[in-house]
Amino acid sequence: MANLKLSPNIAAADDFYAELLAAHEGLGKDQSDALNARLLLILSNHIGDRAVLSAAIETASNSG
Amino acid sequence: MSKIFETPIYPYSRSDDQDAISPRRKEIIIIGAGPVGLAAAIDLAQQNVPVLVLDDNDKVSFGSRAICFSKRTLDIADRLGCGQALVDKGVQWDAGKVFFDDRQVYEFSLSPETGHRHPAFINLQQYYLEDYLVRRVRELETAGAPIEVRGRNRVSAIAQHDDHVTLEIDTPEGPYNLESDWLIACDGAGSPTRQMLSIDFVGRVFEDNFLIADVVMEADFPSERWFWFDPPFNRGQSALLHKQPDDVWRIDLQLGWDIDKEEEKKPENVIPRLRAMLGDDVNFELEWVSIYTFQCRRMDQFRHRRVIFAGDASHQVSPFGARGANSGLQDTDNLCWKLKLVLDGTAPDTLLDSYDAERVFGADENILNSSRSTDFITPKSETSRLLRDAVLDLAEHHAFARPLVNSGRLSVPCTYDASPLNSPDDLTGGPDQTRPGAPCADAPLEDGFLLNQLGDRFILLSINADAPETLSESGITVDRLAFPATEALLERYLGTAGSALYLIRPDQHVAARWDTFDEPAIRAAIRRAIGREN
Questions:
Q1: Would you identify the CATH topology of the domain B202-294?
Q2: How far does A38 lie from chain B, in Å, by closest CA?
């Protein structure tokens, strides 16, 4: 599926996850949702490749 | 103040057609003297095609209505003989600002490219456009052109026959009948013609109301399009401010779905809303108020045998993007030269099916763009709003998010990529913007501008290429226009090619292009462009 990486790709994954949680600490639901939305858009732009983005949307849609 | 829209400009007067014993036959009847119907009439009359316009009213439209006219519309109006008048009266603009809450998050310019005769947009009240078009009709009449506008002539019944249409028309002095070879319905979104012929018009309804107000004020705001998402003065909704001529400003305020329209329209409710937006120290006077809702929809086909639909009668979009009147003028621009060739017997009547193919394609593009703008401006779910607000927050600080901000994708003419009238692109290295199907890009010449040299007829544009001065094929005479390759021509028509020949349609769209003169290929392309060859 495109070039979407679905094998582990983040070094020190636990550190990353902790950082993500820390960014949400102390935020209410609305603020947290807004942060997630901004993050999503920043990361999407960084990826840029439309085929990869489509594959990511599809993968996320089918994984819930 | 005496208003332009209070004076009849094509008052009823009796025609001897009303006294004829049997119904007279016309070549082309147009229903509707709005911008689209009038443009069609002028276009045809300029080509010496007799044309009669019927309208149930006798005045220009009430209120400012459509106000943003695109460069393409001005280019078309040039060909119709009133482009400069519109530009002289209109307010030119090419910049816009976007605000979110109380902050400016984004600023844009619509004309990055120089060397076009006309600005990206002008703002002009629709009644002025109609007034200039009617003046042009009068000019043509005076010069003896076969054009007539009949006010207070309401078409009450239409019947289709194999080779003509019959109409029953009501007037202040009673009814009469006419026949016409062709009928062009330009009678607006509520098209009575469409209803009389029982043709469906389905699409997406947007559950939202917008208050539209024209105010007269002397204010220091620049001639820019200002758009607010969720501003303090209209919480949770959007707002738009735009300048028109005569110190008239257009203000658009989203109101939501569950409102009492009659209440909201009352000045005592409108004025506090405007006061909240404009501040306490601005003096303004309310000129016109209306509340509108909208749909995005189109007819399945724009041609129904001898009846051809154009403008809002055939397609409707949300107002974000100025894609209503501008696309209607592109409809008639596309239609009239084809109709002329069919009437002359130069082209088969199947050429008119390409009007359907090309303008349905254009309508779909407009509907897609305006639906997306509407979804961004008025989010339909909590998540949609969340993402929209994230885009706006990011846009304030980071360039990457700005292309996602959608306060309306403003009207640009479409490129008929899949048109049956196009020949395959045969110009290696030619610029994408002038590929077959594209509207010609304007360019400055040593004297004047390129687009003013085109139009009304087929042209063979040659740049650094040899070609005969004139060429006749299947009843079409194609004149050559040759220009030395100025910098803009090079950039817009040559690209990396050394020479180029363009076959350009009467509506200034590219039909075909080559690097050198290839007579059989050019002849085939001409036949294809008039529907005589697949």
A1: D-Amino Acid Oxidase; Chain A, domain 2 (3.30.9)
A2: 5
In a domain, A6, yes or no: no
B137 residue type, one letter:
V
Segment B419-429 mean pLDDT? 98
Q: Which CATH architecture has domain B4-89+119-200+297-366?
A: 3-Layer(bba) Sandwich (3.50)
CB contact under 8 A, A42 and B393: no
Please state the domain extents for chain B: 4-89+119-200+297-366, 202-294, 432-529
pTM of the model: 0.95
* Nearest residue in chain A measured CA to CA from B390: A38
Place of tokens 């009007």: B355
Same fold, B4-89+119-200+297-366 and B202-294: no
Host domain of residue A52: 28-64
Among B101, B381, B383, B386, pick the best mutation site for testing chain A contact (most A Cβ within 10 A). B386
Contact B394 A41 (CB under 8 A): yes
Residue A17 lies in a domain: no
3-state secondary structure (DSSP) of residue B247: coil
Percent of chain B past pLDDT 70, that is, above it, reads 99
CATH architecture of B432-529: 3-Layer(aba) Sandwich (3.40)
The DSSP secondary structure of B40-53, one letter per residue, reads: HHHHHHHTT--EEE
Chain A residues inside the 8 Å CB shell of B387: 37, 40-41
> Alpha helices of B378-442 — where are they, by DSSP H?
382-397
- Looking at residue A1, its pLDDT comes to 61
Q: What does the pLDDT look like over B276-334, one tens digit per residue?
A: 999 988 999 999 999 998 889 999 999 999 999 999 999 999 888 899 999 999 999 99
Q: How many CB pairs under 8 A join A and B?
A: 25
In this complex, do B386 and A38 lie within 8 Å of one another by their Cβ atoms?
no
Residue A15 lies in a domain: no
Element (H, E) at A21: helix A13-24
Angle between helices A29-47 and A50-61 (to 10 degrees): 140
CB contact under 8 A, A41 and B389: no
Task: Please tell me the distance from the alpha carbon of residue B347 to that of residue B453, in angstroms, as a whole number.
Answer: 24
Coil/strand/helix, residue B68: strand
* pLDDT per position as a tens digit, B196-212: 999 999 898 888 999 99
pLDDT given for residue B1 in this prediction: 40
Give the A-side interface with B, CB within 8 Å.
33-34, 37-38, 40-42, 45
pLDDT digits (tens, 9 = 90+) for B39-51: 999 999 999 999 9
Query: Rounded distance, CA B473 to CA B410, Å?
Result: 39
Report the DSSP beta bridge partners of residue B226. B97, B241
**ipTM of the prediction:** 0.95
Mean of the pLDDT values across residues B376-384?
A: 94
**Do A38 and B394 count as a contact with CB atoms less than 8 A apart?**
yes
**For residue B391, which residues of chain A lie inside 8 Å, CB to CB?**
41
Total domain count, chain A:
1
8 Å CB contact of B390 and A40: yes
Mean pLDDT, all residues of chain B: 94
Whether the CB-CB separation of B183 and B29 falls below 8 Å is answered with: yes
CB contact under 8 A, B390 and A45: no
Q: According to the model, what pLDDT value does residue B378 have?
A: 92
